[in-house]
Amino acid sequence: MADRSDAVCDELAGLSLADNGSWLDITRLVDRATGDLASGETVRAPGFTLFDAMTSIEVMDARLDMGMLSADDARAIADWDFGRVLTLRQALWVALWLLRCEMTWHMSASLVQTLYTCNYFTCEYDSGGRETSNPARDLVLYPLVVATGACARRVWDEYARENLFSDEDVQFGAAPPRFFDECSARDAERLLDRAQAHLQQHDNAQDRAAVQSLLALVAARRHWLRALVLLDARSVDAAARELDAVRLAWPGDAGDAVRGAFDRKCMRRYASAAPIKPRALLAGADAAAALERMARDLRDVLRALFAAGSAEHAAYAFQALALRAPAPLPFVRSAAATAFLGDACVRGREPLDAFVRRAVLEAAPAPAPALASLLRNDGARVVGDWLRTQCQNAPRQRRVALKYLGGWDALQAACEQADAQTHADAFCTASWAYHMKLQLLAAALLGGVRMRVYADHELPALFCCAAHALDAHVALLDRMRAHASPERAARLRRWRALASAQHALAQAQWLVAHALERLRVFRAPWWPRPGDASRLAACARLEGTRARRARFALRFRALAALGSPPPLTFDAWCAAQQQLDACPLAELFDHAARTLARARDALERERRLRHDDASPVAAAWDQACEPLARVMVANAVALARLQQGGVLERPELHVAGALAARHRSAVLQADVDLAAGKSLGRRRKKDVERARGWLQAVDQLASDGLRASWTADVHPHWPVYTFGP
Predict the structure, then answer these.
(1) Residue 326: is the preceding peptide bond cis (ω within 30°)?
(2) 647 or 269, higher pLDDT
(3) What pLDDT sits at residue 661?
(4) Which tens digits make up the pLDDT trace of 358-396?
């Protein structure tokens, strides 16, 4: 056995792809190496490390090994025949399948898994002229393939600008194939015109449905290609019109399949860039809907960004893009960043530092001369980073926001020093930087809600911190309005209305989450079942003050490093919790409902005051208010139903939160002691029985309507609660 293993290792060490770069068949080598192995034994080359083992794949398992060549795959590859004369129905099938590949690529799949699988897309062949013996292939399919490549080239170029991150938003795959650069966009459009003319002259009644579907594909492809070309030329209005014309309905009859036209194992030709796991293509109807949605989202985003005449309006537009649900596809977000901030110019005509200066002047007096260089460099950088962050996917938005808080904090400190040397009140440019930092802080805190970053039992601390930060933002805007001109005061009033609504919403969310946590509806995952001594002891440690302090510091560590606002410490949070604990739990639900009602009324009054304002910025502000109002209404309705159900009248809910916490702690400690074999004294036993009875009564309320769940579908930053069995 040792001699055989040594021989196998020597042969493994001698394997190399340097000669021709093609795949090597090692089946016999593997069979020979594993023939005498017992269970648990392995054969490896000397350079095979633990890292290699952790990143290896399950070879010959179709679920994990994308390179596995099954018998069906081998037959399909053998059936590929480029010279096959296609019918229109077969050309339709290939074109529709190619669209599915393209839209799956837009959904962050690899090129190797999508477009490269089409043999008509990657093969070398002559397009043919008008006189051809294969018109469906050369006069119909070839133009669609070339136009698809022209579109993919522009998408590829957009991704290459690195507005997005390839590890999260898009997989580049290998180098672009020939059809990415087969011909110019103008030539591709001429080919589409030729395909349209050929299809319109085709009068075979049997192919009528296929002809209509192909004409719809040609039209959609032409409009999409034109839109991409116009975007490159920064002709946003014309591009929006073309995007508006992109319409495609998936046909009921998708044509006749062409065996071998798509090689699912084409990654064997791109071994160095092939992903490991297979990726399923979008369904046909989903692919057509994705194309329409991508065109519609890109149109809406571009119109919103380029209608923004002021920095305030641009901020509303970018925040709307960041909160859009469902999130736009990666290309839409990258194209939005390029169109608005390409070449360090806003909308291709205004330098970014000039935009920053205009943003400062909209909220504060003219910056001091000493700040000119600071705003031109650091100011332009942090503003550009903030705007680009809004174009990232949701997880990166939150992570990057936490990362950039330090930059805004440093900018605010530098502005405060310059303001103090120039202005008596030391309250000018620094106030704008603080205002922007507080917006970023709220987004960083609340951005984890839709991704379920916070567990249910962490929601009280989250919304307490959010309320603390938003309270500082409202106070800042009040001070800024006191020093502002009438025009600036009007802008600041809009910001204040939004911040005030968010502050009230955070308070109401805090009250509800605190009550549910005290009632053990929102329960930490480490709470064990009675009788498990080790888990009970671990739970007691995790519920201790030291562990809770450590978790709080770790969760909100980025906020503690800021110079302002003063961070909410663990002790301050505990003091705030104790204030809530003085109220009966049922009153917390009632107070939350009243808070939501007051906030909703205040927001509606502000919206009615601006009802006659037809300016674009007023419309953008109203659009930012609408989802907040819907969250308030949805939660108010949920609380009203809970009150009408009579659950809040139960005596168990009229216990103060402090007593509820003591009951829970007493039962936990008693369970720990009992599991360890300790006995309880008579008085303590009586107290524990009372506490256990209260907890059992509260747990019974779950079947009566106190069970709670939440979603972030209405607004990604704010939960909407649902109560009921």
Answers:
(1) yes
(2) 647
(3) 86
(4) 888 888 777 777 777 778 788 888 888 888 888 888 888
Tokens of 640: 């009203």
Indicate the residue type of 271: A
Q: By C-alpha distance, which of 133, 716, 259, 190 is closest to 447?
A: 716
- Measured CA to CA, the distance from residue 610 to residue 294 in angstroms comes to 32
Q: Cα torsion for 619, 620, 626, 629, to the nearest 10°?
A: -100
Q: What percent of the chain has pLDDT over 90?
A: 27
- Residue 130 one-letter amino acid: R
Return the DSSP state at 118: B
Q: Which amino acid is at 232?
A: D
Report the distance separating Cα 42 and Cα 250, nearest Å. 51
Asked if 81 contacts 98 with a C-beta cutoff of 8 angstroms, the reply is no
Condensed to tens digits (0 to 9), the pLDDT of residues 308-326 reads 878 888 888 888 888 887 8
Q: How far is CA 163 from CA 334, 384, 403, 705, in A?
A: 6, 11, 17, 47
- Burial label, 377 (beta-carbon count in 10 A; 0-12, 13-18, 19+): exposed
Mean pLDDT of 567-576: 91
Structure tokens at 583: 């109220």
**Encoded amino acid at 476, one letter:** L
Tell me how far apart the alpha carbons of residues 515 and 7 are, in angstroms, rounded to a whole number: 69
* Amino acid at site 647: V
Tokens found for residue 388: 């680009």
What is the rounded CA–CA span in Å between residue 384 and residue 391? 11
Q: State the maximum Cα–Cα separation within the chain, in Å, rounded to a whole number.
A: 103
